[in-house]
Prior knowledge:
67% strand, mainly beta, disordered N terminus, two-stranded antiparallel sheet, 1 helix, two-stranded antiparallel ribbon
Amino acid sequence: MSAIKPILRGVVAGLLATSIASPAFAGGKSLACYQQVHQPAVHKTVHQQVVVRPAGVVHETIPARYGKVTEKVLVQPEQVIARHVPAVTKTVHRKVLVRHKSVGWEWRYVNGAKTLCKVVHPAQYATQAHTVVVHPARTVHERIPARYAHRTRTVVIEPARSVARHVPAVVKTVARTVEVRPASSAWVQVSGKRRCH
């Protein structure tokens, strides 16, 4: 049947051309009648996904985090200092013999006459002061303890780092009209001879 249709179309087209070109054939006896039938194109709406933005990797930098710490620091280390302690003295007084007891001769006047007399001279004493050392001079080693202070400083709690973050693709659905079947036309034989008159 599919092989006959092109032949039939050619015959019909030839007959029509002949009938149009030759008016002498008009009004003849109809053997077969054909009508041209037009089929409009058939469309339908299809939905498909399109990539608006492709997937990728974004490198994001996270800044470092800082904090404060307080710590004990040495300001001055322990020291040992040698200190001189002078001697302690005091003054003492003592009685000393200046002249011993003695017997001697001396002139005296007795009843108006100069007389040589034998006399005893007692011992003579005097007080003398002198310094004595109570405590001798010495060197004392004095220990000075270390001195500390508290100091606050800034430290890095977490260093800066780079993080790779995956960004998914952005996809959206778009609708478009596609042609399912194109428009067409065909010659169809009209059934019944009366339609040809």
